Amino acid sequence: MMSATTRQLVAAAAAGDQEAWAALIDRYSSLLWSVARSFRLPDSDAADVVQTTWLRLVEHLDGVDDPDRLPGWLATTVRRECLRLVRRAAHESYGPIAEVADDGPGLDAGVLKDERDAALWLAFAQLDEGCQQLLRVLMADPPPAYATVAAALDLPIGSIGPTRARCLSKLRQMPGISQLADGTSAWDGSPGRAT
Amino acid sequence: MGRVPGEGHVSEPLSDDELMARLSEVAAVADPVPEALLSAARAAFGLRDLDARVAELMRDSAVDVSATAVRGPGPRMLSFESGEVAIECEVTPDAARRDIFGQLVGGTAPAVDAQVPGQPPVTVPVDADGCFSVRGLPAGPARLRARLADGTTLVTSWAVI
Fold first, then answer.
1. N or C: which end of chain A has fewer CB within 10 A?
2. Assigned domain for B43 exists
3. Which residues touch A113 (CB under 8 Å, ≥6 apart)?
4. First to last CA, chain B
5. B112 inside domain
6. How many angstroms away from the CA of B147 is the closest CA of chain A?
7. Is B138 on the interface with A (CB under 8 A)?
8. If we measure between CA atoms, which residue out of B141, B33, B41, B20 comes closest to residue A33?
9. B4, B47, B63 ranked by CB distance to A84: nearest
10. Domain A6-91 has CATH 3.20.20.70
11. Do B89 and B41 sit in the same domain of this protein?
């Protein structure tokens, strides 16, 4: 099922195939979660917007105009739901959406056993908000197409590549990571690391 | 990683693609998609409602800034519409609970079901003016469903309340 195209999965799910539905969730949940986190939503709000996006897809399974563009539709839907929660918190009497800690939601490096990974995550958490947002979406697995990223963040598609390069360059210059990524340590991209 | 930290090991620096892949792997460990969310997403398929027509969310005072500017802060207003039938909702928060005071416009129904994923629906009566109220729903996605007098079923689009 994982090798099926998104078009095939949408068609099968619309016909009532629960396994096809589960395969769509496996394929795109990381994207949706990454977008929600890129808006710095805490756990419960992030879960609500992702779940609502899936519920909306269930609602619209029969009306998906172009299944090949499903990732873009999902990204746009989850972005709108994120903005809804962010603005609701800003304009209404719902109170702050999160107790703002030093790090944003999901940015705790404590669970990372490898100190190089922890250093990388800490450095990421110190980037400016724009870079954090873009890179967090790009961390989705499988890697999203730039068109999907553009839909998730309402950015021109042509800006994604250059901004990614600029943000990764900033990341390399962060204290605590420069020595990890400058080629003098074993922390590199050569074969042997887990994929 | 699969590598022993090198001592004096010199190698090529990470390319952008390699660094991005590394970030992706770290994110999968440090901030994974919660398993409970994946389960809930799979279960969402069971909430498919093939018989109902969907009333789309047309207005939301939380995002319509002009509405907020006119009214000032207050309960959140949500408007769902399908053709001539509309469901207007006022959502009032109380910690992690939400109360809905709503009105069915352009159609009649004896009752409205408030539905939350993973829970049995809550049925409340609709009065002669089309008004109904649902108390104590958990914060999160919810929808309303009404069997109209003309025999059709109307269901609102899912919204996070």
1. C
2. yes
3. none
4. 42
5. yes
6. 17
7. no
8. B33
9. B63
10. no
11. no
Chain mean position to CA B76: 14
Nearest residue, CB atoms, B26 vs list A51, A117, A181: A117
Return phi, psi of residue B39, to 5°.
-65, -45
pTM score, whole prediction: 0.88
- pLDDT tens for A113-138 read 888 899 999 999 999 999 999 999 99
Contact B156, B148 (CB under 8 A): no
What ipTM score was computed for the predicted complex, to two decimals? Answer: 0.88
> What residue type is assigned to position A131 of the chain?
C
Q: Do B1 and A94 touch (CB under 8 A)?
A: no
Q: Which of A52, A108, A114, A178 to mutate to test the interface with B (most CBs of B within 10 A)?
A: A52
Which CATH architecture does the domain made up of A115-181 adopt?
A: Orthogonal Bundle (1.10)
- Residue B135, pLDDT above cutoff 80: yes
Same domain, B111 and B123: yes
Q: Is residue B5 part of a domain?
A: no
Question: B102 and B56 share a domain?
Answer: yes
Give the domain range for residue B150: 50-160
Q: Is the pLDDT of residue B29 over 60?
A: yes
- CA-nearest residue of chain A to B36? A47
Q: A interface mutation test: which of B19, B76, B92 has the most A CBs within 10 A?
A: B19
- Based on the fold, state whether residues B22 and B91 are members of the same structural domain: no
Q: How many domains in chain B?
A: 2
